[in-house]
Amino acid sequence: xxxxxxxxxxxxxxxxxxxxxxxxxxxxxxxxxxxxxxxxxxxxxxxxxxxxxxxxxxxxxxxxxxxxxxxxxxxxxxxxxxxxxxxxxxxx
Amino acid sequence: xxxxxxxxxxxxxxxxxxxxxxxxxxxxxxxxxxxxxxxxxxxxxxxxxxxxxxxxxxxxxxxxxxxxxxxxxxxxxxxxxxxxxxxxxxxx
Lengths: 92, 92
Fold this sequence. Notes:
The structure is a homodimer.
Chain A: E1 5-9, E2 12-20, H1 24-41, E3 46-50, E4 53-58, H2 71-89
Antiparallel strand pairs in A: 1-2, 2-4, 3-4
Helix pairs in contact in A: 1-2
């Protein structure tokens, strides 16, 4: 797990990483793929899409297990990296 | 044009507005629709998607016409409102 940094959103710790893209269509595909991952886990990241990049932040606001960066958030950060590599390999 | 506020991203003025959704799938549909609008104008907003809401910010970084909130940004903010109403009406 590389290049994920710790940051705060609404006072809650998140793991955050930006992914860069040459084409907007490619960044949109990536965002949608991560959204699919999020739906399957019923746990949704904060994502920012702008020209050339998508920034993904995983954190838990409130749960029985606490808040901040939990095991599930670290796992989903790793899964997000895998999705990025998978989509890059496909040359979408 | 209501509820758009002036804010700054990377030192550039933007018009920004948040739209709320009960379902994540609906917020994702809206983001994709705005992305389609952006592609058709070859001008891309900053969008944040998180649980329950999408925040759209229109601004121009650098162009022959200047930077900040230009006529095109105001127009696209209006078009974004229309898209939201259109999708709400369709009960997606």
